[in-house]
Structure of Zinc transport system ATP-binding protein:
Amino acid sequence: MSGRPTTPEQVIEARDLHVTLDGSRILRGVDLSVTAGEVVALLGANGSGKSTLVRTLVGILPIASGSVTLYGTPLGRTVPWQRVGYVPQRVSATTGVPSTALEVVSSGLLYGRRIRMPRGAWASAMDALDRVGLADRADRAVSELSGGQQQRVLIARALVRDPDLLVLDEPVAGVDQQSQESFAVTLTGLVELGTTILVVLHELGTFAPLISRTVVLQHGRKVHDGGALPPSAAHATPGHDHVHPHESPEEGSPLIHNAGFGS
Ligand SMILES: Nc1ncnc2c1ncn2[C@@H]1O[C@H](COP(=O)(O)OP(=O)(O)O)[C@@H](O)[C@H]1O
Ligand SMILES: [Mg+2]
């Protein structure tokens, strides 16, 4: 097509990334380069640093050394956050304000310095809820929804911006098989539209046909970056990832003003 750049746009560029949390070195020199339209699965055992990496990439965690650019803009400057949707690894939703599903989803339209809902916000939020099959739960308090439904609300909150880059941290952990399959269909639609995706997974499962590349972390280092199928070492032990009780993941994120979850 005319007018298209001949080289794909650089979406994520992390160079020699080191991240330290509470005095422990968690990421040790990670390089990651993702171009437009790629669907990259990030794999690795529990505690290998997957969540730390994606949270650093979306500007939630500080960088000890190295660099990250999103769409060519270094983190900490004017990254075009409206192009980025992020689905955090789910944390308990039993505390926090009693937001409805619709409110949580519409909060995805707030980013950067935008503190007021744009025109048409509710309609967009309803549309996003519909895409995850929860339109009939719009007015329900999120805390009343099942774990899988809460996860789908978080996905809708990321989708409501129509992001060009979607970063998902174990989006289907704890989600029933049927919802996983319908989410894979939703993702397929986004991939066909050209959305760039970085997704942390325990196993490729339902998503295998979508994945163009796998990256594997081990002890905070990248140990594989290549073809669609991971080496056998990549198969993580099943189970849920550890979430530190003292951290409140979304607070202060440039991406999310009012997460309504776990904060
Ligand atoms: N806030 C924190 N303070 C100290 N250590 C942390 C913190 N968050 C995570 N960690 C540690 O960092 C390592 C990587 O965690 P994480 O990125 O959550 O791994 P993964 O998502 O691959 O399971 C783990 O050893 C974890 O205990
Ligand atoms: Mg994790």
